[in-house]
Amino acid sequence: MNLVIDQGNTRCKLALFEQAGEAIRETDLPVLDQAGLQAFLEGDKPDAAILSAVKHVDHTVIDAIKGRVGRFVHFTAATPQPLRLHYATPETLGLDRLAAAIGAWTLKPAHNLLIIDMGTAITYDLVTADGTYCGGNIAPGLRLRLEALHEKTGNLPMVQPTVPFEAFGTDTTSAIRAGVMQGIVYELQGYQHELKTAYPDLFAFLTGGDRFYFAESVKSDIFVCKNLVLTGLNAILNYHASI
Questions:
Q1: Which pLDDT tens digit goes with each residue over 62-111?
Q2: Domain hosting residue 69, numbered range
Q3: How many separate domains does the chain show?
Q4: Per-residue CA distances from 184 to 114, 143, 165, 177, 195 (Å)
Q5: Residue 192: inside a domain, yes or no?
Q6: Does the N terminus or the C terminus of the chain have fewer Cβ atoms within 10 A?
Q7: 96 labelled catalytic
């Protein structure tokens, strides 16, 4: 059994995986601490653990994880992983982007893949069928776009996303929501259309916290996956054991 931990900027996600299977159990916490770790494990003793963190994790918590497992991997840019990186500055590549790409490759190996991760930023990453991570693009996320319209203008209100959302606005609030959310849909479709000219068999994944706002709008063309980053981290942990 593998313990997978993804400490993001605002939340920490934990999951238990059978080594090559799906998540058995998962949760999320505001921050990783010993109490939360103990409560999640509920007496389970994983064989191995992997930690990915974009912010500092207290060393006492890391020591507590190490004390519960036989093998521990702290995921960094130097950690062995199954993809070839075609990226000029691998040390600056977001670990969540790389983990999501590896998660997609694990679920759909030997395919050309577009991975769309919708969080604070929206990232678009390409993995080719030969297992090469080719890089990708970073764009403002849904809430950043809504906040920017409110904070960088004099009179526009702060608007909340909804499902469903309007095709065209009939007042200022709905005009902002439709403009931002329909704009993101067209953005997703644009990336797919352009990449499919080069990779006709392209398979696309949609993941990240804001994915559910757009799942219905793009469901016929994109596979929606909740745990792509956690799946990728589990694959990295397994790969680490095989080398």
A1: 999 999 999 999 999 999 999 999 999 999 999 999 999 999 999 999 99
A2: 1-74
A3: 2
A4: 16, 11, 12, 11, 17
A5: yes
A6: C
A7: yes
